[in-house]
Design a protein that fits this description.
By secondary structure, the chain is α+β, with helices and mostly antiparallel strands. It is about 25% helix and about 20% strand. The protein has a five-stranded antiparallel sheet, with helices on one face.
């Protein structure tokens, strides 16, 4: 299956400066900003600047520089927000939803950096 990127999605519009955001970090390959509906005391979205729909698309099509740039931006956000152990924090969660069943709301690959408190289970335990 090919990937069809919607260049009118909210993150594409944020990248073009059409919609403002509360920026945490911007690099050559990534933009990080506070989520407008935070689910924890710290909730930052990190997005690649390229037109990637989800993790599958990014993993298949991003350059090595883009992949490294996104990973480094995520690490920098964790340090800048005080979540990483290197910054004196007590940890955080990374979450990337993909597709309908993964509950992806915006069709632009993004990683949630969430923390600032002890988080609950990511998923309930299955009762098989």
């Amino acid at each position: 299956m090919g990937y069809s990127y919607d260049d009118q999605n909210i993150f594409a519009r944020i990248l073009r400066g059409e919609i403002p955001c509360k920026k945490v970090l911007e690099t050559e390959h990534a933009l990080a900003f506070h989520d407008i509906q935070p689910q924890a005391p710290v909730h930052v979205l990190v997005i690649p600047k390229g037109p990637y729909v989800n993790a599958d698309h990014f993993g298949a099509a991003a350059s090595a520089a883009e992949a490294a740039g996104l990973a480094r931006a995520i690490a920098e956000v964790a340090r800048a927000t005080g979540l990483s152990e290197a910054a004196g924090g007590r940890g955080y969660r990374l979450l990337a939803n993909s597709g309908e069943h993964g509950r992806q709301d915006v069709p632009h690959y993004h990683v949630h950096v969430v923390g600032g408190e002890k988080l609950g289970r990511m998923l309930p335990k299955r009762q098989d």
